[in-house]
Amino acid sequence: MTKQSYNIRNIALDLLMRISDQGGYSHLVIDQMLKKHQLEPRDSGLLTEIVYGTLQRKLTLEYDLNTFIKSKKKIDKWVKWLLYLSFYQMKYLDKVPDHAVIHESVEIAKRKGHKGIANFVNGILRSAQREGFPDYQDINDQVKRVSIETSHPLWLVKRWNEQYGIEITEQMCQTNITHKKVSIRVQPLRMTREQLLSRLENSHIKASLSSFSEQGLVIEEGNILKDETFQESLFTIQDESSMLVAELMDLQEGMTVLDACSAPGGKATHIAEKMNDNGTVFAYDLHEKKAKLVKKKAEELGLTSIQSAQSDARKLQETHAKQLFDRILIDAPCSGLGVLRSKPDIKYNKTKEDIVKLSTIQKEILHHIEPLLKNEGKLMYSTCTVDQEENEEVIKDFLEKHQTYRVDPAFFDELPEELKNSSGRSKFGIQIFPQDINSDGFFMTRLVKDS
Ligand SMILES: C[S@@+](CC[C@H](N)C(=O)[O-])C[C@H]1O[C@@H](n2cnc3c(N)ncnc32)[C@H](O)[C@@H]1O
């Protein structure tokens, strides 16, 4: 395919159909498509923005569309997606004039369907242009309004409202539909973050120092993935909340650490770096393929203290019958409701039943791993989700059943100032909401085992 022969909106429509039909992870599907079409950088930016934006706002756009539909006639799925992506551009993208959006969408409708469909699409888009989009303040029920205005399913907004109250819930939902800056963690055995900062400046990438990890940088401007420092494996892309996990593990050189759910290795490599690659990190994952990713990542970063292998965390007592650990990390499989900014499909696919199943697995993992911790050792539990059943409730259940454990009081003293008095703090740990430090939503706590 030559560079000029593609049509961005056509590709966007294909992608959205594929993501909705196959339930595919949006970021993987988009990456594949970008590689296949060899788009110009400006076009790949626009394509990503249209696909992510439309997905992110799907429920809002669906609500908008319903206000313009007068008949009860069934509308084909692809026509709906075409209208959603057109609405998205008209509402949220200044750089594309409405008339251009309408013209292109009508052409696509003609090509993919027939003249009748093109007329229908034209009619709807022109009504929206003339009348404007609905005002959500007219929705009296607050929970329903937040659900529609921020495009989160009603069950989830209801659940968050019950758990955290409407104010936190609304802030969280609003934050979830904003853009998140990329952050990176320098490999400190290769370079200091100040040195990396000045290398990035030379390639016109603007970055600032993270306040949550001494290894962290926040990218303010520029594409870090295209920079040669990325090819040289001088850093790892990692969210700032995620960086806090290893930062709060109270690690020291020479320790023996178990990372029971480690793929793709973001935290295992951080742990090794924090110990100056001096110690041992046993990194496991349930899936063989994923465990190999940890090995690959450690090799790329030049870290030799990580040993990775496949195992179900619930069976590690058999593998390590005679070995106890100074530190254990359980970065548990979870519903991922804290990472909706980068993976919007999660909010449409996860269910309450998934949460129940996951919390059972989380409790099982904790229960089976716990005997592997030394007396006075510390166990870190974290998830990238915002849900009490997978977080506080799991820890509460664990502490009730394992009386030798308690939440380490020093953990709270070590929290960054920004989080010390946050509303997410409880006696079980800290729930970081995406709006707190403009990061992913994460839960973390540190337990200590008394002798
Ligand atoms: C949140 S991710 C871990 C992310 C990783 N710690 C990092 O920082 O890159 C959870 C991982 O747990 C793995 N997993 C799920 N169930 C497991 C089990 N029973 N035992 C071990 N790993 C499991 C998943 O395959 C997934 O890779």
Automatic annotation (TrEMBL):
Its EC number is 2.1.1.176. It catalyses: cytidine(967) in 16S rRNA + S-adenosyl-L-methionine = 5-methylcytidine(967) in 16S rRNA + S-adenosyl-L-homocysteine + H(+). Residues 172-450 form the SAM-dependent MTase RsmB/NOP-type domain. GO terms for molecular function: RNA binding; rRNA methyltransferase activity. One of its GO terms (biological process) is regulation of DNA-templated transcription. The keyword Methyltransferase applies. This is 16S rRNA (cytosine(967)-C(5))-methyltransferase. It comes from Gracilibacillus salitolerans. The gene is rsmB.
